């Protein structure tokens, strides 16, 4: 046999072998696809489940964020409501005092002192306290120096000499510094 004939025979045998193997490979491929489709379907179901969870969590967070913003807005707008309610009785007292047509200056002064005391006690009730400046060392956390008074002696140096405007704290936070004169 010639070399060419041998190649043709080999080619024909290869073709037969390939033809015989192809149905087996196709059958094997079908079996593999069925086996692969189950994990694929499971993975797709898991992906859908995770997507659903993600969407729900995102919606929950968005609702939480909106609710928090709404609560903050209401707190800002209506936060002073309790303070105003506490001060309204004092306003009523002022109205009654102004409506009274008495000419007695002493009675009018006593009425104003009573209203003042009521106002101070109401402020203390909501946490507002007066900053004490009497015989205190100057403290930048509580005092604002508006004047320096020379010639007061060494014992008054760095001390509050006079309070020009009272300062206040609310719940231990300074809301207005006391304006004071300090000795040099």
Describe the structure.
This protein has 184 residues and is α+β, with helices and mostly antiparallel strands. It contains three helices and six strands, in the order αααββββββ. The chain has helices at residues 3-78, 81-99, 105-125; strands at residues 128-130, 143-149, 160-165, 168-170, 173-176, 178-183. A three-stranded antiparallel beta sheet has the order 1-4-5. A three-stranded mixed beta sheet has the order 2-6-3, with no helix packed on it. It is elongated. The termini are far apart. The relative contact order is 0.07.
Low-confidence stretches: 24-33
**Mind telling me the C-alpha Rg?**
45 Å
Strand tally: 6
Share in helix: 55-70%
What does the largest sheet look like? 3 strands, antiparallel
Computed structural class = alpha+beta
């Amino acid at each position: 046999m010639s070399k060419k004939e041998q190649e043709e025979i080999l080619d024909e045998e290869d073709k037969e072998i390939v033809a015989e193997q192809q149905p087996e490979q196709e059958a094997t491929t079908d079996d593999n696809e069925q086996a692969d489709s189950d994990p694929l379907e499971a993975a797709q179901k898991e992906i859908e489940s995770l997507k659903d969870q993600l969407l729900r969590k995102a919606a929950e967070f968005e609702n939480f964020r909106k609710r928090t913003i709404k609560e903050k807005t209401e707190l800002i707008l209506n936060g002073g409501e309790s303070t105003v309610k506490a001060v309204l009785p004092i306003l009523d007292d002022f109205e009654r005092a102004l409506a009274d047509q008495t000419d007695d200056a002493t009675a009018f002064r006593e009425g104003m002192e009573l209203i003042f005391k009521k106002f101070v006690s109401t402020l203390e009730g909501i946490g507002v306290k007066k900053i004490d400046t009497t015989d205190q060392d100057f403290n930048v956390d509580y005092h604002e120096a508006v004047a320096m008074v020379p010639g007061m002696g060494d014992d008054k140096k760095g001390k509050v000499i006079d309070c020009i405007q009272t300062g206040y704290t609310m719940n231990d936070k300074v809301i207005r510094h006391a304006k004071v004169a300090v000795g040099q």
